[in-house]
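Here's a chain:
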Amino acid sequence: MKEYTKNTKTINRKFSLSEYDPSWVLKFASIKGLVSRVFGGDKALKIEHVGSTAIPGMKAKPLIDVLVVVEKLEPFEREKELMVEAGYEWRYYPEPDEGLTFSKFGLDGEKLEHIHICEESSSWVRKFIVVRDYLRTHPEKAKGYSELKQKNIELHPDDYPAYRNAKTPFLERLKEEADKWEKNK
């Protein structure tokens, strides 16, 4: 079974930024269908489109992020096999009990799909969904984030870690704002 770890394929990988594309919703639906078949109704409690491609009007890497919420993380050996057969590579989060991810890459090495498997009690679940919902309801914040991404890709076109690191302060503030917003709804 193919497991990947931190390497040049996942860290110093090819990446690009695109204007919002409504077809991302259809790509998510296709991935959701696969994940539903692999994890079945008894393991996948929720399957959510998250990340920038889930925010209408927002610039994004054309990478579909999917969150699969499970009651309890388990080895998922059969599911890993099925996902590998479907063209995905897998790895655990930095701490295995935080989650599991599946990624699919294009022929040019650009990551196309990223599926996060997390327990429903995980802080990652709340982070993904609250930030997504906050950006969906605050288009001015999504616009600001899009502008930052555009600036960062111009500054770091061939250095994905530098591109991500340049976004970190903004994303930390955004998460704090989203948390406050969610608590005051």
Summary: The CA atoms of residues 38 and 82 lie 7 Å apart. Residues 23-183 form a domain with the Beta Polymerase; domain 2 fold (CATH 3.30.460.10). The first helix runs from residue 23 to 43.
